[in-house]
Amino acid sequence: MARNDGPGPELRENLVYLLKHAQQRMAELLADALKPHGIEGRELGVMLTLAGREPMSQQQAAQRLGIDRTTMVALLDALEGKGLVSRHPDADDRRRNVVELTGAGRETLRLAMAASAEAERVFLTPVSPRTAQELRGALQVIVFQPDGRDS
Amino acid sequence: MARNDGPGPELRENLVYLLKHAQQRMAELLADALKPHGIEGRELGVMLTLAGREPMSQQQAAQRLGIDRTTMVALLDALEGKGLVSRHPDADDRRRNVVELTGAGRETLRLAMAASAEAERVFLTPVSPRTAQELRGALQVIVFQPDGRDS
DNA sequence: TATTGTTATACTCTATAACTATA
DNA sequence: TATAGTTATAGAGTATAACAATA
Lengths: 151, 151
What we know:
Chain A has a single domain (37-144), classed as Arc Repressor Mutant, subunit A (Orthogonal Bundle). Helices cover 61% and strands 8% of the residues of chain A. Chain A has helices at residues 9-12, 15-34, 41-50, 58-65, 69-81, 103-123, 129-144; strands spanning 56-57, 85-89, 97-101. The first copy, chain A, has a 3-stranded antiparallel sheet. In chain A, a hairpin with a 7-residue loop joins strand 2 and strand 3. In chain A, helix 2 (15-34) crosses helix 6 (103-123), helix 3 (41-50) packs across helix 4 and helix 4 (58-65) packs across helix 5 (69-81). The radius of gyration of chain A is 18 Å and the shape is elongated.
């Protein structure tokens, strides 16, 4: 992307603009932090979805993440190729694949979560810890209870 | 995109996930709000950049928005086709195009800004006005002073 | 018939490279 | 030579449609 000279005052107030650029910056910080561990931001999302939970089918994992099952196929192909995830046919329903983290996957996830936390810390550097918590809380409410009032 | 069943607790805390989904929701609300006025979210960004300011070249406008000049060409093609923006060669440097809102463009912008404000109001419904202001302020600091401490 | 995983394909958004006209 | 606008092209990311295996 071209260098951003900074928008006029109209755009600096604009929520879509602010959210998009904040998301892009956070995504770049995360990508850099994950690179040493050989995974990308979306792959961390998949691994977090698979972690600490009863085994899941590809479709269930995709629904959790809010992505299409065809998108999940490509993500799992990559993670399986790196030896971080395994796929087995489900004995109870052989149409399904049971997807799980491998041992290497759990270890990579542990390191990646620490790297992610550090990237978030850098992202939040310019605001106070209290403001950072309010930011996270406000986004959670907006994303997960978009129709409710407060919690 | 597939229906989102909701992620596990790990992802609900994840800033990239929260920012991405918040941005997508805000973008959808804005797109719906702008549809009656015949423009898209990115086109509103271009028009806001061109508004209330001395005339600008395409390249200057692109740099303000942080997009490539080739991307700006397509955006301006669309806006010019709708009669909302005009392009004229710059008399002082005929390599440049001076880009300006037309009268219709200024009127559409006025209506679009009101629609955008209403979309933001809907987006922010689940949080208090005070939290909403803190959210906007925190994002501004993070996006525009990513290396500074507080303001 | 319906569902799961898969493949092929297409669409959106954006960038890079190369062309043109001007400087 | 360098720059502004343009065009052609390519890549990333994602979705839809169609197919095989299974239910």
